[in-house]
Amino acid sequence: MNRHEIPAKNPVHQVFVGWDHPLLTFFVQVYDRIKLDDDVAETYDPVVLARLGVKGGIAPDVALAQTWYQKAKNLGSAVALERLERLARLPESPE
């Protein structure tokens, strides 16, 4: 199987096309970058991880979560701004 990214007319989308040789079919995948960036940010958001009860495996990383929320905000995410503000209010963790 091969997969290639092609330019999307709308920068909010990410588009891939490919060929699945075993199935002898072409495929197209379209992703919403805003949703994708929000989802990646949640992977590192300590508030989300605590709410889900995650223990081990994924370490919370406020800076990384902020980076991904900022990307989503720049693309027009409605929730990213609120989540960035929430992360900014978190107390500093002792090092």
Explain the overall architecture.
The protein is of the alpha+beta class and 95 residues long. It has one domain (2-88). The protein is built from 4 helices and 3 strands, in the order E-E-E-H-H-H-H. Strands 1-2-3 form a 3-stranded antiparallel sheet. Helix 1 (33-44) packs antiparallel against helix 3 and helix 3 (62-74) packs antiparallel against helix 4 (80-88). It starts with a strand and ends in a 7-residue tail after the last helix. The model has no long low-confidence stretch (mean pLDDT 89).
User: What structural class do the secondary elements suggest?
Assistant: alpha+beta
Q: Strand-and-helix sequence, N→C?
A: EEEHHHH
Biggest sheet architecture: 3 strands, antiparallel
Spans of at least 5 consecutive residues whose pLDDT stays below 50 are none
Number of strands: 3
Average residue pLDDT = 89
Number of domains: 1
The rough form would be described as: elongated
Features:
43% helix; 95 residues; three-stranded antiparallel β-sheet; alpha+beta; single chain
Task: Provide a compact summary of the structure.
With 95 residues, this protein is α+β, with helices and mostly antiparallel strands. The chain contains four helices and three strands; from the N terminus they run βββαααα. The chain is elongated.
Blueprint of the fold:
Blueprint: E1 2-6, E2 13-20, E3 25-32, H1 33-44, H2 46-52, H3 62-74, H4 80-88
Antiparallel strand pairs: 1-2, 2-3
